[in-house]
Structures are given as structure tokens and as C-alpha cells.
Amino acid sequence: MAVKQNNRNPFKGLQFTADIILWVVRWYLQFPISYRDLEHMLSDRGVKVDHTTLFRWIRAYAPELDKRVRPHLQMTNGSWRVDETYIRAKGQWIYLYGAVDARGQTIDFLLSPRRDAAAARRFFREALKQPHTVNPRTITVDKGAAYPIAAKAMKRDGELGRFAKFRQVKFLNNIVEQDHRRIKRLVLPGLGFKSFVSGSGTIAGYEAMAMMCKGHVASAPANDMMAQSDFVTALFSAAA
Fold first, then answer.
1. Angle at 122 between CA 73 and CA 75, to 5 degrees
2. Quick one: which H or E segment has residue 99?
3. pTM to 2 decimals?
4. Could you give phi then psi for residue 25, rounded to 5 degrees?
5. pLDDT digits over 96-118, tens only?
6. DSSP SS3 for 79
7. Are 211 and 106 a contacting pair, CB within 8 Å?
8. Using one digit for the tens of pLDDT, what is the confidence trace for 185-212?
């Protein structure tokens, strides 16, 4: 597997082995499960880990997984499908922006405390910085007023191709809405997030795991959990 190794050992000094930690990370980020349920599952396998420790693992390794997966993503195409949804964090609603291409491959995502033109513009900017994305030919959104305002300003400032076609066609966005429904299923067992920071990091992990499950990484095909496990192990330079 052609995965560049990281010489820094992210598991140094921990009581538990890397294979246990990565198993927890993969399962929590892929399936709708609570920390307490995961604690019971590990106990059934003879591994005693408190659910608060599992929370700390996810907070540490979920965003790290996203960061390490990104260089291995295959290129997306220029047909963007963009949408946002809401998620609860510390009793407040926050907004998750997401975009996929016409094949359903992830372009980018962003958690924002606000839902406005500034947030939409920030999301577009971040998406365009990713090495696996291209300047879009078309951007399909819902009827939200913020997107046209953000796109117009970015075209004016040369941040977005001036010939990019902007469409507001709801049924074409079913593919990105499915991604948001998946995120909400994963969040549900935990009844929301304790803070914006923990929500942002965990969602980054959800999205990174989803990229692999959708076949966005050539060496970790969709529906091949063994290959995905090997790929994650290689990313973290850990011997399974």
C-alpha cells in the first residue's frame, strides 16, 4: 500500500495499543453508536476502557484522520452539489456546510456557528483550497439566498471562475442531502455535541471515514473494510 509513513508516533506513552485505538476510531466514526455502547463492546472483548477515555480518543484522532486522509483523495469533478444542515452543540444550533461532486465524492465540509453569506463564502474558499478539487463548472444549491451573494462576490474578486454556472435546483441536491442524513444518524446516539470544537473535530472524522467508505481513496475501496482498516493503520504508521 503506497501510503507515506509519518515518523511521529501519535500513540507514544498511551496505555493501550494502536490497534485497539484505531479500531475504536474506525467503528465510532462509521456506525451510529454511543461511547457507552462502545465501552460495553470492548469489555465483551476483554478490553476495559472507560467511555470518557473513548471520547478523548475520538477528539484527538478524528481530526487527525481527516488531515492524513486528504493527500490520498482522488480528484473530484467540476459539478458541485452544495447544501447545509443544522446540528446541536451545547444546546445551540450550528450549521454544517457540505459539498459533493456529481458522483457523490466529497469536495469539502465546514461547521459554522452562522448561516449567512460570509459563512458560505468561507466554505467555498476552503473547498477551492483542497488539492483534490477543481474550480467548478456548475454549483447546484437550494433556494438559500446566501449562496448567490457569496458566489457573486467571489467572482468579482477573482476567487471563483467567472463562467461557473450557478443553479438552484433542489432535486439535483439529493446526493449531498444523503450525506447530511448520514451525519445526523451518527450524531444521534450522542444527543449532539458538548462544544463547537468537539463537534468540528468529530465531524471531520465522520467525513474522513465516509470518504473511504465511498471509495474516494484508491487503495481503500468502498465496502472493503479490511482494506480500509489496513489503510488507516498505514496512515498512522501503526503495526496492527
1. 15
2. strand 92-101
3. 0.89
4. -60, -50
5. 999 999 999 999 999 999 999 99
6. strand
7. yes
8. 999 888 789 899 999 999 999 999 999 9
